[in-house]
Amino acid sequence: MALNAQPLSDKFAVAITGVDLSKELDQELFDEIVDIFVRKQVVVFRDQHIEPQHQLAFSRKFGPLEMLFDDDQRVAGFPEVAILSNEKVAGKFIGVVAAGDFWHSDQSYRKTPSLATMLYAHKIPKIGGDTEFADMHGAYESLPDEIKKRIEGRMGINQRSKLGNHRVAVTREGGEEYYQRKAANNVLHPMVRTHPVTGRKGLYVSPRFTVGIEGMDDAEAQPLLDTLFAYQTAPGNVYRHKWTLGDFVMWDNRSLNHQACGGYAMDDIRLMHRTSTIGDEPFA
Ligand code: SIN
Question: Which of 36, 199, 230, 254 has the fewest Cβ atoms within 10 Å of its own Cβ atom?
């Protein structure tokens, strides 16, 4: 079966219609989806009606699942399905509020960061709530040779905590305490990462998690990181997804940064179910 895949931007991101992710996919169709996923980086499946068990079954095909956030921020009975939402029940948020609110690649503060992330829209706000994606292959390829030379072979210093990262702010209630509790060691990753399937090179740094460059003074490293982040978000390098109910979006963290754009009122409910898979250790 040939998939109906429509481009969403000039270079990357496609929308697929005519596939029902609540059903078992045959191998040929699944292989086609994987091929589109690694080449196009963001895949939007339209018109889905899926329950947590369907999301889990599809996500598992891309690797072992991550279990993120706290118990009370996950779907009961499906701990690998996290809830991202501003909805409250009995005065308490039912999920993570303002998750992913600065540019990042998922779990890049770990030695083995995420491969695929899947987000399914159960409720979308009337205003705001978009997600932006930046093509990190495109960002790398657009760098002048002089900058490529400066970062060749270099390792970025990545950190989970927002505390001490001047490019981000703690936006959620109780966030300071949360990051103190979750604080962990710095993790080094190559600043230029080779995609393990396509062999394409891409930048692997983000304002959210990359706080320095190993062996380089901050006086040189911080302006260099600012320059790299500016290439990441240059015109033509970003796709902004405006959600429609029933969208199931998956993206490749090995070649993209993304951010949740926010911009919705606290009583205008956004409710997403999120799964992600564990990837390989990045290599240069
Ligand atoms: C994320 O960064 O995982 C969440 C993105 C979003 O909610 O738009």
Answer: 199
> Are 139 and 232 a contacting pair, CB within 8 Å?
yes
Specify the CATH number for 4-134+238-278; select among 3.30.300.20, 1.20.1280.170, 3.60.130.10, 3.40.50.1980: 3.60.130.10
Query: Is 207 near ligand 1, meaning CB less than 6 Å away?
Result: no
117 ligand 1 Cβ < 6 A: yes
Task: Please tell me if the CB atom of residue 95 comes closer than 6 angstroms to any atom of ligand 1.
Answer: no
pLDDT of residue 2: 62
For each successive 10 residues of the chain (284 residues), what is the average pLDDT?
Answer: 85 95 95 96 97 98 94 95 97 93 97 98 97 98 98 97 90 71 84 98 98 98 98 97 97 98 96 98 98
User: Which pLDDT does position 171 carry in this prediction?
Assistant: 75
Domain boundaries, the chain: 4-134+238-278, 141-232
Place of tokens 């304002």: 207
CA-nearest residue for atom 7, ligand 1, is 260
Closest ligand 1 atom number to CA of residue 129: 8
Residue owning the nearest CA to atom 8 of ligand 1: 260
Strands 42-45 and 14-17, how do they pair? Answer: parallel
